[in-house]
């Protein structure tokens, strides 16, 4: 059973014995360890539903794989006497702009275990921060309404879920976390350029 998280702390209660109503049945567990336990449970489920074009933070996949695949596709287009164009996209502040409501809906479609989804969303809620200057002055407490926490073992996987259903494009996509390249080959330069511009517009509107 997963504990209910009101606000993520260094320690979280974990049910070790029955009955669940008895406080003595719980033992404290470091929250980082609990995150890793959740990650190991959902990783196979999530990975099986991610598209081949996304290689970021996936077991057995790397940046080198995507670079090699892109180079091979460009070479094949040259062999077919076509013009190839590539555009590289870097999603600015990608982790900080994840929309929680949208992520929640996508998690429900990806992970069958509703208790697991509920736990994940609770770890993202009620987060806040204070800025402190070198002179010791502090800002007001501000709440975070979007984003996934930096440094969390779950965040890369959650981001993959969030962007895994990018719209279809004529261009082929090569993703690694928040970095994305698209490649299109056409017989004529103008057709290739127009196609890339159209696909960029589609992706930018979605993101």
Automatic annotation (TrEMBL):
Instruction: List the protein's name.
Output: Reverse transcriptase domain-containing protein
- Source domain of life is Eukaryota
Q: PROSITE patterns this protein is in?
A: RT_POL (PS50878)
Q: Which residues form a coiled coil?
A: none
* InterPro entries membership: DNA/RNA_pol_sf, RdDP_mobile_element, RT_dom
Cited SUPFAM superfamilies: DNA/RNA polymerases
* Any single Pfam family the record assigns to this protein: RVT_1
Q: Where is the Reverse transcriptase domain?
A: 1-207
